[in-house]
Amino acid sequence: MSAVRTVLGDVPPGRLGMCDAHDHLFFGSPRLPGQELVSVPAARAELTAFREQGGGAVVQWTPYGLGRRAADLPPLSRETGVHVVAATGLHQDVHYAEGALAALRGRLADVFVAELTDGIGASGVRAGLVKVAGGFHALDAHARWTMAAAAEAHHATGAPVAVHLELGTGALDVLDVLCGESGVPPHRVILGHLNRSPDLVVHRQAAASGCYLAFDGPSRANHATDWRMPDAVRALAEAGHGDRILLGGDTTTAAARSVDSGPGMPYLLRRVGPRLALAVGDDLVRRILTVNPARAFAVDWR
Is there a contact between 65 and 111 (Cβ–Cβ < 8 Å)? Predict the structure, then answer.
């Protein structure tokens, strides 16, 4: 039976409720010094604020080596009543100190599988997806290495593979590698940041493959997100791909949290959902926030 693998265990997909399909409770990268998400009280407050807006689940895309704080996720989920899904995987190599990944050479897929089936380190918290990343309009050797390992982990476990697209680019190349070369079924692939490259033709081509398209990172006007996203979502819906769309907040810095005067997780339900409903209707927005993520993250785990 299909289930979403949360930090408190596997749950039926229908229990997720309204889902922030891509966000971060904890995250730290050398590229964002001084903006690390490390505070447990702030994470608790953010989840509480999200819950107060009707939120039911948050999928944390923070991968290996970037401060996931897996052991802190179960108590936060229990205390706030919000389902939390953790990730394994790797980000772009620029997010890691030089030499930090050397020990993973030759065993990366095994690490991903172990974190999906046995748990992340000593925490015992099992990941519910694999997160990897492409580059700007290209896939370098690091991206191909991580995607090959993600594909192996998918074939071993059934786990979905979520992909950071740099500024929303490279969607079709990623599908060529993951689905064409490595045999991952398209419906197990989630492409992130499509909002940052509002090419409606590429969006339709990607959706036609059967993959999921995540519009994540609202309130970033410099990424052409808020004011173009309704048109992009409407175009996908009119082309018959409304069941392929996901929404997320992608909070990656402390200043972006709602508890620090940023938009944060609640913004997705407080502002983005209602604005999107003006373009595509309340029913489709409800399905994008509930039915679509329930399908995207539910797996017949092996």
Answer: no
Query: What CATH code is carried by the domain that includes residue 89?
Result: 3.20.20.140
- The amino acid sitting at 99 is G
Residue with tokens 């897929």: 109
Name the domain count of the chain. 1
pLDDT at res. 246: 98
Which residues, at least 6 apart from 30, have a Cβ–Cβ distance to it below 8 Å?
A: 94, 95, 96, 97
Cα separation, 228 vs 196, whole angstroms: 9
CA-to-CA dists, residue 184 to 145, 211, 267, angstroms: 15, 10, 33
Rounded Cα gap, residues 60 and 46, in angstroms? 13
CA angle 274, 200, 252 (to 5 degrees): 55
Residue 57: give the domain boundaries.
3-299
**Contact yes or no for 248/210 (Cβ under 8 A):** no
Measure the CA–CA gap between 276 and 110, rounded to whole angstroms: 40
Residue the block writes with tokens 């991206």: 143
Digit-coded pLDDT (tens) for 190-205: 999 998 888 999 999 9
Written as one letter, the residue type at 59 is V
